[in-house]
Amino acid sequence: MAKQAGMNQENVPSANTQKPTARITRARAKALSVSGGLLPLHHCDKHESSQVLRRNSKRGPPDDVDSSFQSKRRAVLKDVTNMPLNDLNIKITKEIKVQTSKQIISAVDRNAIGALAVCVDPQIQKGNIKATKDTTKQNLKELRQITAQLKLGNELESEQSIYYNPKTLGSSLPKGEINIFNKVESSNEQAIIDIDSRHKDPLMCSLYVAEIYNNLRATELKRRPSFNYMKTVQRDITQEMRGILIDWLVEVCEEYKLKSETLYLTVTLIDQYLSKMYIEKQRLQLLGITCMLIASKYEETIAPRVEDFCFITDGTYTRREVLDMEREVLDVLNFHLSVPTVIKFLRRFILVAQSSYKVPIVELEYLAKYLAELTLTEYSFFNRLPSLVAASAVFLAKWTLDQVEHPWNHTLEYHTNYKTSELKATVVALQDMQLNNKATLHAIRQKYMQNKFNKVATLTSPKPVKPLS
Description:
Order of helices and strands: HHHHHEEEHHHHHHHHHHHHH
Shape: elongated
Protein name: Cyclin N-terminal domain-containing protein
Domain Cyclin-like: 247-331, 344-432
Distance between the termini: 140 Å
CATH class of the largest domain: Mainly Alpha
Radius of gyration: 43 Å
Structural class: mainly alpha
Strand order of the largest sheet: 2-1-3
Oligomer: single chain
Number of helices: 18
CATH topology of the largest domain: Cyclin A, domain 1
Strand content: under 5%
InterPro entries: Cyclin, Cyclin-like_dom, Cyclin-like_sf, Cyclin_A/B-like, Cyclin_C-dom, Cyclin_N
Mean pLDDT: 74
Number of strands: 3
Keywords: Cell cycle, Cell division, Cyclin
Domain Cyclin C-terminal: 340-462
């Protein structure tokens, strides 16, 4: 018995003096002192438990964090600039963005507090599920409203009108003042459509297209060939021979499917050479195919071979004669091949004319090209500027398709730099050619009689164009 009592006495202090396995903190030391040296059965220090969990895991704080904990909110950076805002759109955009940023921060803080306030206890958690769902729906609704406000602000900031007034040097007009139906004509007659702002393709060169065409207008004045070379330089060929040659070259372009730029450049090179060098009529066709060979090398992706041009002449000229003539033409022209032609201005002016319509009119493009090509065979149009011929072709094409409204508007006048009075003589002469059914040169007319050009060669205006000026 005594031995058993002694053993019991030895067991008591060993149980009471058991060393704790964890690090003793101040809270645990206080708990040990209160309980007489015994370890508490349950840990009630939430701060200590959170530290233990943080050491054992890289995750965030557990779900049993005190619900009174709130994340520190950042102060909203307000506008620190002292620059006055004169633009109403910019001012509205700034106010919307500042207001919506505050609402976003408020919504995020409520979500964070709601997430931190969730308790680990399953009973309390089930009680808060409904409140959490309601809060989430309310926050989503607010975020949708904020997104809509931000979208509105961005539209006010980034949207640019394509209409401007030339008197205000590019100041934009409200887009709501323009009524667009079948035509995109402005109620204000002085409003001009900016045709370059809508193009996103870098190949359109919309950023510096105005400078390009200003340079072309200056170049066409500098490199004009002599308009009376048939009297001063040439003695063996006539205007009719020149017309027959160009009419035949139109058929050659159709045969080899060459571009319009090649045809126009060919005619320009022929006229420039004839205005400087005398040539016999036996070599006139050689000059024509040689200039087309040079223009093909300049404009075409895959140019016809020298043998092809020799074949098209039925072997009249040899390969050596063509190459020798090519060398001579390039020497006379001093390799100045980049010259403004009618087609360069015509493409631009057609684009301007199409901007007046909601849907582009294909017949307008084909008819303007047809009228412009008719001038190639006429020596009388040789002394007119290419830009003037292109603008006159667009004028007459619009009048042929629609005799109700005046074909020239402020947009065309602004981009072409031609008024109606300046186009009068050229347009009247061009309409005479259009109505001439006794013309002996038929290559261009037969070309535009085809279905691929919508047979625009058959179109004529029932009303004369003279009273318009």
